[in-house]
From TrEMBL:
Pfam families: 4HBT_2. This is Similar to thioesterase. The lineage of its organism: Bacteria, Bacillati, Cyanobacteriota, Cyanophyceae, Oscillatoriophycideae. It comes from the Bacteria.
Length: 139
């Protein structure tokens, strides 16, 4: 199974008063990973987003297994879970990277629907072919 990988260094602004990463950042990182995937593997979709295409997040979840702290090196691995009609399910794994190896910190899941903005409505639209092709490389 091939995963798309996004590296991130945790900053102080992503932590709370206790010093660990605030839980909402994990979901934010899912979005960042998804955006970087588009930039790297389906850049034409970015243009389509300004022409009416919308990738609407319809559900998101995260299971927390351990804590992260400022300056932790984080590796987020994203794989394709499922493609069904106009919906894409992506699975995420969050790994802390150290000199001793990798430690699984959290697991996430996100479902996005491909929609198109037309006048005052948003209607379902098929997954663009280039996006579907890019995603199948990470199944």
């Amino acid at each position: 199974m091939k995963a798309y990988e996004y590296h991130h260094i945790v900053s102080f602004e992503e932590t709370n008063l206790v010093g660990n990463v605030y839980y909402a950042n994990y979901v934010r990182w899912q979005g960042r990973c998804r955006e970087m995937f588009l930039k790297d593997h389906a850049p034409d979709i970015i243009d389509e987003l300004s022409q009416g295409l919308a990738l609407v997040t319809v559900s998101v979840s995260c299971e927390y297994l351990s804590e992260l702290f400022a300056f932790d090196h984080l590796l987020i691995k994203m794989i394709l879970g499922e493609v069904k009609q106009n919906r894409i399910t992506m699975l995420f794994e969050y790994w802390r990277v150290t000199d001793q190896g990798e430690e699984l910190i959290a697991k996430g899941k996100q479902e996005a629907a491909c929609m198109r903005r037309e006048h005052d409505k948003t209607i379902p639209t098929p997954i663009p072919a280039t996006l579907k092709k890019a995603l199948t490389n990470f199944r």
